Amino acid sequence: MPQMAPISWLALFIAFSLILLVFNFVNYYSFLPKSPEITHHSISSSSMNWKW
């Protein structure tokens, strides 16, 4: 009976877990976010005034 073979279920669980981890690592490290361009805009004091 296949239900009574815990070794095969353990092997399937380990294989699935490893495949899931490899899939997540590949997807995570394949994404390269765009680096933000450095802009030299200073914050003016007029824009910092509170509008009470």
Automatic annotation (TrEMBL):
It is found in: Mitochondrion membrane. The chain crosses the membrane at residues 6-26. One of its GO terms (biological process) is proton motive force-driven ATP synthesis. F-type ATPases have 2 components, CF(1) - the catalytic core - and CF(0) - the membrane proton channel. The keyword Nucleotide-binding does not apply. It holds the Pfam family ATP-synt_8. One of its GO terms (cellular component) is proton-transporting ATP synthase complex. It comes from the Eukaryota. Keywords: CF(0), Hydrogen ion transport, Ion transport, Membrane, Mitochondrion, Transmembrane, Transmembrane helix, Transport. It is a single-pass membrane protein. This is ATP synthase complex subunit 8. Belongs to the ATPase protein 8 family. GO terms for molecular function: proton transmembrane transporter activity.
